[in-house]
């Protein structure tokens, strides 16, 4: 069912001119600014990753020198973590859809929201400036581990400043969302009537607000040590390198949930729409988001089992880490139970969500292997960790983000993409992704260390498979983005609610008007996912 | 959409007295001076000097939150959240110190 034309009153044509975009206070426009910026940096990160895989096609030097390789994987990590995965879902879809989900007209602090975007841009410029200033980008890995990061001649200071500024952007977004959720829900919407995406953003925002300052201070300490020679982390001047790792992971492990929780919120949002039935275990999913955020604070030490941390601390952190698996499993169980006996409509967004569950299960279960103290001694700093990490981050969060892009595409732009092409792109992405990263898990178990420029001959075959996988993955990405771009310009006009969704964003026109709703949206009786015509299981 | 705003935001204006503001400000200044005295002018507390500074800083944070940021007028949930946050911070410290002491 298609409408004849886009509604005249929409946020795209409410104001005209480049300045109306660059200094907009509208949460939807800010969300789109983030989308364009984040996708651009994502493509830079993809190119760097692609080049790394090309270098690893054969043992020895292929296309770059060892030092360049170190810089490339560092920049790949910094861009993908700080410029893509961390801001991606909250900054793009959180900004665009949180107020719509809550039935309000904007976030609590629109000006702070704009500041947050420009801080993001400033941080990104600092990160990219390392390419041309000083002795080139940092070669430390995205973790900036001391004491090497204190001693290397590469441009660590600028990279660290970039991460520091990006952290501020993240904190402000988190603060904005917390206040928005507490203060601006539509009348009658209690916390337990909020969509689960809002719940996941709420949990995420608390992590952004509380954990990010820790890494901010830690990164400044790196600069203080580099510039003023204060002995904080370098043992040769009285510092403790393990202290750096503690401080870094106190933030960076919860940050994994900044990346994963919003993706889980998307899955909880999209599955009921395509199963056309009430989500199974609403409260269990909502509270498990909070539980993951909370427990996530207590487990950072599992990144340090082999770094010289005490056995007592290692033992405690190993046990605590296993607790994270409980709320995560609660979510997966509820998603599958929601699909069970639903009226399943297999559309592109649902395919991406199913891929999320598949990939995330592999990522999560391999995470348990890393959490086990004894197993981790063998697996630490091998390609197993690289495979595990990419299964969670790209296979999980990346796929959820692509799924959300396909789900909300008709709501944002009022048009529909070509579904046949989208199917092919999905197949390429899913197949290419698994071909690229599954061999890494095997390589890790075989003992191939991560971040090495060269490798032994016995690792050659699996590295070749992984590199060919990267070609398929990149083909899928190009096709997916091209299809969306074509759909954006030439796609058929979509109806206001093409998926028959019932959360509040589907009550307004597509694209939405500047103030989101022409009249107060009506809450569903019995909760946000109470499908009236759903088949009762 | 105007009627939408603030329905969940049952916000009331609170005007604190000058006496309260001044009292809080004075307490903050005094605590700052105490931090400086302890650290610079050598109250020989050894390892306790860090703990002393942290305790003073915590009291200052509580004073700012409670009086200047009007936490005293807010619902109990916000005070509970502050307590959870502080408990998390204590956990960070305890685990890092535990690692250091048992290495």
Structure description:
- The complex is a heterodimer of chains A (537) and B (103).
- Chain A is mostly helical.
- Chain A has a single domain (18-507), classed as Cytochrome C Oxidase, Chain A (Up-down Bundle).
- Chain A contains 15 helices and 2 strands.
- In chain A, strands 1-2 form a two-stranded antiparallel ribbon.
- Chain B has 2 domains: 18-69; 75-103.
- Helix content of chain B is 69%, strand content 0%.
- In chain B, helix 1 (18-40) packs antiparallel against helix 2.
- Classes of the chains: A mainly alpha (537), B mainly alpha (103).
- The A-B interface holds A 103-105, 182-187, 189, 210, 214, 240, 242-243, 246, 250, 297-298, 301, 308-313, 316-317, 515-517, 520 and B 1, 3-9, 11, 85, 88, 91-92, 95-96, 98-103.
Low-confidence stretches of chain B: 1-6
**Corresponding CATH superfamily of chain A:** Cytochrome c oxidase-like, subunit I domain
Radius of gyration of chain A: 23 Å
SS-based class of chain A: mainly alpha
Assign the CATH architecture of chain A.
Up-down Bundle
| Low-pLDDT segments, ≥5 res of chain A | none
Order of helices and strands of chain B: HHH
What's the CATH C level of chain A?
A: Mainly Alpha
**What structural class do the secondary elements of chain B suggest?**
mainly alpha
Largest beta-sheet characterization of chain A: 2 strands, antiparallel
Tag the structure with descriptive keywords.
A: Cytochrome C Oxidase, Chain A; two-stranded antiparallel ribbon; B: 103 residues; flat; disordered N terminus
Topology:
The complex is a heterodimer of chains A (537) and B (103).
Chain A: H1 18-22, H2 27-55, H3 66-102, H4 110-129, H5 148-151, H6 156-183, H7 196-228, H8 241-275, H9 282-295, H10 311-339, H11 348-371, H12 373-379, H13 383-413, E1 415-416, H14 419-446, H15 460-490, E2 492-493
Antiparallel strand pairs in A: 1-2
Helix pairs in contact in A: 2-3, 2-4, 2-15, 3-4, 3-6, 3-7, 3-8, 3-13, 4-6, 6-7, 7-8, 7-9, 8-9, 8-10, 8-11, 8-13, 9-10, 10-11, 11-13, 11-14, 13-14, 14-15
Chain B: H1 18-40, H2 48-68, H3 76-102
Helix pairs in contact in B: 1-2
């Amino acid at each position: 069912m298609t409408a004849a034309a886009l509604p005249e009153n929409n946020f795209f044509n409410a104001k005209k001119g480049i300045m109306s975009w660059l200094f907009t206070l509208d949460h939807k426009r800010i969300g789109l600014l983030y989308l364009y910026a984040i996708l651009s940096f994502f493509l830079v990160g993809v190119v760097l990753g692609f080049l790394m895989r090309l270098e690893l096609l054969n043992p020895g030097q292929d296309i770059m020198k060892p030092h360049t390789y170190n810089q490339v994987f560092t920049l790949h990590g910094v861009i993908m973590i700080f410029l893509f995965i961390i801001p991606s879902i909250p900054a793009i879809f959180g900004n665009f859809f949180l107020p719509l989900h809550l039935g309000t007209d904007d976030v609590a602090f629109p000006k702070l929201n704009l500041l947050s975007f420009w801080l993001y841009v400033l941080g990104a410029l600092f990160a990219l400036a390392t390419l041309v200033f000083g002795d080139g980008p940092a070669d430390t890995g995205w973790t900036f581990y001391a004491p090497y990061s204190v001693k290397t001649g590469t441009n660590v200071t600028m990279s660290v400043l970039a991460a520091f500024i990006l952290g501020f952007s993240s904190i402000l977004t988190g603060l904005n969302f917390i206040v928005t959720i507490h203060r601006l829900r539509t009348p009658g919407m209690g916390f337990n009537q909020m969509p689960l995406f809002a719940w996941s953003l709420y949990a995420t925002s608390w992590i952004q607000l509380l954990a990010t300052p820790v890494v901010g201070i830690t990164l400044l300490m790196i600069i203080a040590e580099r510039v003023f020679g204060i002995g904080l982390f370098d043992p040769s001047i009285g510092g403790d390198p393990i202290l750096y790792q503690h401080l870094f992971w106190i933030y960076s492990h919860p940050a994994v949930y900044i990346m994963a929780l919003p993706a889980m919120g998307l899955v909880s949002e999209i599955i009921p729409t395509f199963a056309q039935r009430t989500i199974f275990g609403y409260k269990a999913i909502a509270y498990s988001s909070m539980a993951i955020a909370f427990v996530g604070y207590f487990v950072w030490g599992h990144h340090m089992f082999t770094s010289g941390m005490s056995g007592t601390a290692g033992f405690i952190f190993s046990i605590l880490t296993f607790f994270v698996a409980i709320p995560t499993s609660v979510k997966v169980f509820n998603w599958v139970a929601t699909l069970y006996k639903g009226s399943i409509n297999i559309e592109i967004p649902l395919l991406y969500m199913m891929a999320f569950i598949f990939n995330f299960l592999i990522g999560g279960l391999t995470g348990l292997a890393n959490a086990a103290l004894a197993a981790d001694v063998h697996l630490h700093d091998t390609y197993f960790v690289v495979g595990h990490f990419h299964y969670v981050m790209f296979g999980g969060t990346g796929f959820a983000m692509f799924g959300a892009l396909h789900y909300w595409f008709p709501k944002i732009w009022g048009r529909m993409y070509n579904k046949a092409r989208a199917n092919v792109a999905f197949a390429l992405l899913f197949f290419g992704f698994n071909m690229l990263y599954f061999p890494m898990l095997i390589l890790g178990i075989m003992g191939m260390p991560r971040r090495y420029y060269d490798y032994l001959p016995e690792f050659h075959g699996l590295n070749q498979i992984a590199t060919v996988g990267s070609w398929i993955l990149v083909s899928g990405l190009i096709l997916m983005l091209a299809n969306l771009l074509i759909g954006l310009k030439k796609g058929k006009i979509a109806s206001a609610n093409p998926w028959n969704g019932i959360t509040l964003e589907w009550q307004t026109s597509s694209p939405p008007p500047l103030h989101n709703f022409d009249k107060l949206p009506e809450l569903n009786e019995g909760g946000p996912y109470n499908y009236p015509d759903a088949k009762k299981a | 959409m105007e009627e939408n705003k603030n329905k969940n935001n049952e916000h009331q204006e609170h005007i604190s007295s000058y006496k309260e503001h001044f009292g809080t400000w004075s307490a903050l200044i005094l605590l700052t001076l105490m931090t400086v005295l302890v650290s610079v002018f050598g109250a020989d507390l050894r390892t306790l000097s860090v703990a002393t500074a942290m305790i003073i800083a915590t009291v200052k944070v509580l004073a700012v939150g409670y009086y200047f940021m009007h936490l005293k007028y807010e619902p109990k949930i916000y005070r509970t959240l502050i307590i959870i946050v502080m408990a998390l911070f204590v956990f960070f410290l305890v685990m890092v110190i535990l690692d250091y002491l048992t290495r």
